[in-house]
């Protein structure tokens, strides 16, 4: 074997001190650590070690686990003295339901950045507690076990707030509405939802989105009620927030998620390190004369840009 061929076959990782390898890997990403683990059995044991994967876990992951409801996969795992890598993968693969079932927390598997979904019960939904207009329904496909279904309103307004201190620092996030459409639906065919996303008390990002991908067909097949009762006439006459229309309305289409729900991108937000303010996500349709029905909402999700 020649000298050049010998050098090409040499494993330089094995020449490094063990502590040096672990330190190098801990400054990469979870994805890189998994790749490095393929080099050799010796390197794998270091790349999979607790000191490495502890760096990939959020500093507050223990506090978030403490907020979890009972009988979730993470609880079974913790009872078996798992490695830090096992904890990481569990939080990436199984969203953790926290805060009495109102919110979920998970990790983006590639980066370790934190992801959250505000369930429908965590949202402020105008007339959401009135059975005539909205109803709660059991849904085994929802990570929260329930979803809220729009029965009939002309004043559509939803708000969700989350502390930016929960999010990963120096990270770009994308916000999503996670929902389904009932077979019988109307009102969203050609009317967009008006979206605002931003810090409470400051200027927000504003745009419009269409949540019904079959709007043209749906309008032909459904007759929308045209009469407004006294309640809706009253609501229609009230002053409404001024929300700028986006010239790109409808440019973002809903897509089907792996869990079978639809999601539509709302807006992006960059969270600076050390931020501790409230991020508000709002959805409106306030024309006051168009009845709407058939939107089934699981929640509002916030996850790192490019994450899944």
Question: Overview of this structure, please?
Answer:
The chain is 24% helix and 31% strand. The protein has ten helices and 14 strands. It has helices at 3-9, 18-26, 30-36, 41-47, 50-56, 61-66, 73-78, 84-93, 215-221, 230-236, and strands at 96-98, 103-107, 114-119, 124-125, 134-138, 146-150, 156-163, 171-186, 193-199, 205-209, 255-256, 262-271, 278-285, 293-304. Strands 1, 2, 3, 5, 6, 8, 11, 12 and 14 form a nine-stranded antiparallel sheet that branches. Strands 4-7-13-9-10 form a five-stranded antiparallel sheet, with no helix packed on it. Strand 9 (193-199) and strand 10 (205-209) form a beta hairpin. The longest helix has 10 residues, at 84-93.
What's the topology here?
Layout: H1 3-9, H2 18-26, H3 30-36, H4 41-47, H5 50-56, H6 61-66, H7 73-78, H8 84-93, E1 96-98, E2 103-107, E3 114-119, E4 124-125, E5 134-138, E6 146-150, E7 156-163, E8 171-186, E9 193-199, E10 205-209, H9 215-221, H10 230-236, E11 255-256, E12 262-271, E13 278-285, E14 293-304
Antiparallel strand pairs: 1-2, 2-3, 3-14, 4-7, 5-6, 6-14, 7-13, 8-12, 8-14, 9-10, 9-13, 11-12
Helix pairs in contact: 2-5
Number of helices: 10
Q: Which bin fits the share of residues in helices?
A: 10-25%
Low-pLDDT residue intervals, each spanning 5 or more residues: 1-7, 216-251
Q: Structural class of the secondary structure composition? A: alpha+beta
Q: What is the molecular shape?
A: elongated
β content, as a range?
25-35%
Number of beta strands: 14
Compressed to H and E, one letter per element, the order equals HHHHHHHHEEEEEEEEEEHHEEEE
Radius of gyration: 24 Å
Mean pLDDT: 84
* Biggest beta sheet summary: 9 strands, antiparallel
Q: Report how far the terminal alpha carbons are from each other.
A: 47 Å
